[in-house]
Amino acid sequence: MSILVTGGAGFIGSHTCIDLLESNYEIIVLDNFSNSSPEALDRVRTLSNRNFKIYDVDLLDRENVDQVFKENDIEAVIHFAGLKAVGESVQIPLHYYHNNITGTVILTHIMQKYGVYNLVFSSSATVYGIPDTVPITEDMPLSATNPYGRTKLMIEQILSDLYVSNNKWSIALLRYFNPIGAHESGLIGEDPNGIPNNLMPYITQVAVGKLNEVNVFGSDYSTPDGTGVRDYIHVVDLARGHLKALEKVKSSSGIEAYNLGTGKGYSVLEVIHAFENASGQKISYKIVERRAGDITECYADPTKAERELGWKAEKGIEEMCRDSWNWQSKNPEGYKTESKFFLSR
Ligand code: WQD
Fold first, then answer.
1. How far is the first Cα of the chain from the last one, in angstroms, to the nearest whole number?
2. C-alpha of residue 198 to centroid of ligand 1, in Å
3. 345 vs 50, 228, 323, CA distance in Å?
4. pTM for this model (two decimals)
5. What pLDDT is stored for residue 337 in this prediction?
6. Alpha-carbon distance 248 to 300, whole Å?
7. Is the pLDDT of residue 211 over 50?
């Protein structure tokens, strides 16, 4: 029996694949590589010393998705595949709705056809919209402030309807806060296309000399230093949360949402200073206008995941910064960097 990982070549997907392989799962990766690199999977194979099937397939390609299920004995799906850039989703909403929602409908339709009812879905804290209070619990009101966030919210609702229609389904909705960091080897990590939207990859590209300085989006928020506060979580902790959720969906039925965060918030300036301490690199920055759509403060109450999944984030901000820098310094051009590690083989 295998675990199908859609979007397994991505930042969180590749780290989860390593965890699955090291836990002796058989995995199959489905990815269209529209926002990821096959190189990431080569490095997953090397790091885990395990092999696995890869299907270069788009979830919108129903016939080929069906073929993946026809050819393999799949017991569960971890579904990462999806577009996730907030700003881009505002520019091309139809592309986001079609890609993320239709792709998920096709996937779950085919899962149902083959009697596969175990699903871990990559959701996001963005479904909380502008939270009334923090820390955020899973029962708080849901809303979305952009098309990307609305695709996540709509997919959660579609999956809830799916469970109501057939209670054989066993679904975990994992609401990530702000994933950063990288595998300790520095061989896999976050490799965004173009200029990074997110804070940490922007910082690491300044540190490695690709960008000049960080634009700090606003210093007039009602936070201790005026800059935005977020719950940063190490991608390795996040990957482990997926394995805990997989164990849960395999052993029960129902649908449950879980916050995957540390429960601690850090401001933009705190992250910049933590990164400087962890990397020894000076990070230039400039305070500029707020970014449209940003919220003041967002951090998790992660106690439901601790109670029901037996999962708790373990890595602190120093380790997140150190591992982010280790990845970027070894891979200044991301996966386009020729890795000395492989050249020496
Ligand atoms: C973090 C903080 C910015 C960049 C987004 C998505 C969310 C999820 C995680 C997918 C904020 C500030 C950022 C920069 C800055 N993705 N910042 N200068 O916006 O919390 O969440 O990524 O699920 O859906 O919305 O993350 O890293 O963009 O911003 O000052 O160049 O850093 O204002 O306070 P965000 P982020």
1. 32
2. 5
3. 17, 44, 23
4. 0.96
5. 79
6. 21
7. yes
Q: What is the mean pLDDT of residues 23-38?
A: 97
What domains are there in the chain, each with its CATH number?
Answer: 2-343 (3.40.50.720)
pLDDT (tens digit, 9 = 90+) per residue, 274-291?
Answer: 999 999 999 999 999 999
Q: What is the rounded CA–CA span in Å between residue 206 and residue 103?
A: 35
Residue 215 backbone dihedrals phi, psi, to 5 degrees: -90, 115
List pocket residues of ligand 1, CB cut-off 6 Å. Answer: 84, 86, 124, 126, 176, 178, 197-199, 202, 214-217, 228, 230, 268, 291, 294
Q: What whole-number distance in Å separates Cα of residue 322 and Cα of residue 99? A: 34
- What does the alpha-carbon distance between residue 96 and residue 85 come to, in Å, rounded to a whole number? 9
The minimum-distance atom of ligand 1 relative to the CA of 298 is: 20
CB-based contact 314:280 (threshold 8 Å): no
Give the pLDDT score at 339. 54
Euclidean distance between CA atoms 276 and 325, whole angstroms: 10
Burial of residue 154, with CB atoms counted within 10 A of its CB: 0-12 exposed, 13-18 middle, 19 or more buried: middle
On the question of pLDDT at 344 being above 50, the answer is no
Whole-angstrom CA distances from 73 to 76, 114, 173, 236, 301 are 10, 9, 23, 27, 37
What's the pLDDT score for residue 34? 95
Q: Which three-class secondary structure state does DSSP give residue 266?
A: strand
Rounded to whole angstroms, how far apart are CA atoms 214 and 202?
Answer: 7
Question: Which of the residues 148, 176, 232, 266 is marked catalytic?
Answer: 148
